Backbone:
């Protein structure tokens, strides 16, 4: 399935298609920490301007099926560990897009010199994501008590997930 | 001992005394992720401009004995958890300054509405700090494999430490 998704670097002309996907995801308030009422400028900064790289996954018809960012998780002496975030368009769920993006991001990370990848705040209620990251080789290395304020469930634990990359 | 240290909000006139303390700490490359060759402007931004609050501990003679920052650890739905960093001046070590600053920061955090405090990257080799944070009620909630590039020891594990604050 996901072999049909072509993943390439983000271009600024992608934004009109990327922003609605990000907005819908963050408005739900069940996966990412970004405030549900974040402005377009705030999200553009966080997803495109601050990261070291941003990519998009394109469906066979050319439409945006997903997007991810990649950046160092810490400065200086922690900068060999990267952090990524992935969002799949609602219409493209269940097609392996997240898997394809995560695998692509790991290859990019290694090419950029990163030695490991860390997810800082995976809502424990997001069972599908936790299961997928585990399947892709990530381990739960920490549990943060009530660290995620889920918009429907209230305070839920957040997981720290980590994978050392083959370099 | 530490009752002699007066803790107050940072003022810009403190910088000439604060910067050498921060620089000496970060140059050692054994506790904080900031690159050992970070510039004064980079550290001013990270310690003073970006955080929600910065404080200093003053010795009886008025000299800077230590400093800390306090900020939200994540945006939006993770912004009820704060993050702090503490640095004690070499000449003021062993006088309870870190304890006094940590206790002060917890009170400040509660006053600002935070519900918990998280340290993201405590070098496991920094045994004195780990022992102190545990003594002050923090738990090790995660271990990040080889996530800290210690300038003498090479890659060492980093700990995630967490404390829920009485609100």
Residues:
């Amino acid at each position: 399935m996901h072999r049909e998704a072509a993943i390439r670097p983000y271009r600024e002309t992608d934004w009109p298609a990327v922003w609605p996907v990000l907005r819908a995801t963050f408005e739900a308030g069940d996966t990412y920490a970004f405030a549900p009422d974040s402005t377009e400028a705030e999200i553009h900064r966080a997803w495109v301007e601050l990261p070291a790289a941003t990519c998009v996954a394109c469906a066979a018809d050319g439409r945006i099926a997903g997007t991810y960012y990649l950046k160092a998780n810490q400065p200086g002496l922690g900068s060999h560990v990267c952090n990524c975030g992935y969002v799949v368009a609602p219409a493209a769920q269940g097609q392996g897009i997240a898997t394809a993006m995560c695998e692509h991001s790991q290859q990019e990370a290694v090419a950029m010199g990163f030695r490991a990848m860390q997810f800082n705040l995976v809502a424990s209620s997001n069972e599908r994501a936790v299961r997928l990251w585990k399947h892709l080789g990530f381990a739960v290395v920490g549990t943060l008590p009530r660290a995620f304020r889920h918009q429907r469930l209230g305070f839920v634990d957040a997981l720290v997930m980590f994978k050392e990359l083959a370099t």
